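Appendix B, record 7
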Amino acid sequence: MNNSMLHLKVNKPKIPMLESVMFKSESEKEAAIEEVFLRVGVKTIGDIIAPITHEESKNGKIPSNIKFAFKEGSKLAEKSKFSQNSFSSVKLGTTGSDYLDGTSLITGVIEQVTPVVENEVIAKMFPEGEYEANKLFMDVWQPITGMTHQNAMDTPVQVVQKRGFQTEEWLPPFAIEMIQINQNEALNLRDPGNQNLAIRGLAACMSKWSAQLTHRGGTRRMNDIYQAIFTGSYTWQDQSISYGIPSGNRFTAGALNGVWGSVSGSNIVPNANSNPILDLITIRNLLLILYKNLNVTLIMNPITGSLFNQNPTVINRVNTQYSDRIMQKHGDNNPNSVKSVLSYYLGADLDIDVMYDASAYIADVNDPNGHAAGTTNYLLPTGQIWIKVDTNAFGAPYGEYAYSLAAQNGGMQNARPGKFFQIIDSMASNTIQGVTQPMIALMNGWRGGVRLPRYFDVFTFNVLS
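Structure tokens (predicted):
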């Protein structure tokens, strides 16, 4: 074989600078390696490795496959602050034993349970309206009173006082909040659930945060509706504005046959001396005589319903309620449901329905309703029953969630009513603040709130007072 045909096959290094010293002396190789380190930003060995103590070396805690030795007097050893005669062995830096002792796998992403807010149910009773005005007015005719007088012949005819009308005024409050994303979060957030930890997750996180703002807005609107019904007022610019609901429309169990019981956390204690069935019959047949031919819906949360269902008087009158599985069957069309039993005792001919609203939310810090942070609470207050009367035949909705003009919809020159959701990138403003401290803001809000055109038809029943 011709020796001139012999050659050594060598895998070429990927770094040309190291390739050039492949067959050079040891000192030249060391200098080239040092140059490579410096070019990629490594100034000292401490930038990439952690020194090992003498005790660790003696005790054999260092795996042999990660020991290094640097030649005495070399620049690398000099920069690392230790030499061959001292502790030249080093180990790779780590943030914890997880990376060395086992494998890891991201298997997916889930969400914790968020309570449901049943907007669809209440939306039918409080439809949303949009108005391109600051103040809203409603003209309300007084009810027809009296009856025709008898009159003797050839005597003056009785003059009847004309029914009049009054004008209601409503000024909308303003609700708005936002989530801020600073540049550190925007650049470094990883994609939740993604196996590749290098994939940025800003878009995925913004999607979840947008859903957070939207859900909080729905909770606020539902809370506003129940606040209007049971409190009869709302606060705007530190002023309490009353809807004018007559005090005679507020019924209490204490003024009838006794409170239905007590509720403390998850502890529900019914009052054996109360008579919930008689209370509701009294309210429907005597106190609501004006509305006797109109459909009535009793709306309450499940805890208030339990005070009724667990009352000894109710159980005695429906002695199979808990022993018969059919009585506990779910569904409004079940002829033996608790709702049907309640309607039966109130009078089936009176068109009474019962509805449970289980809309709930988890309170955060500074909760507007005063609930402790982290607790789950019903939006319809426990112990309260909304006696909703169907007044559609007499015009106007029972109530509505009305939106007025907001500058955030269309701008200052072309403001429009309705909800708004905006994503604002501060860098787009090309200001010093926006460039030096950029951030993204997610903003949700509206100008508007609950209107009660039929405030005089709002009735409530407090079973705990």
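Remarks on this record: The first helix runs from residue 16 to 19. The CA atoms of residues 251 and 283 lie 8 Å apart.
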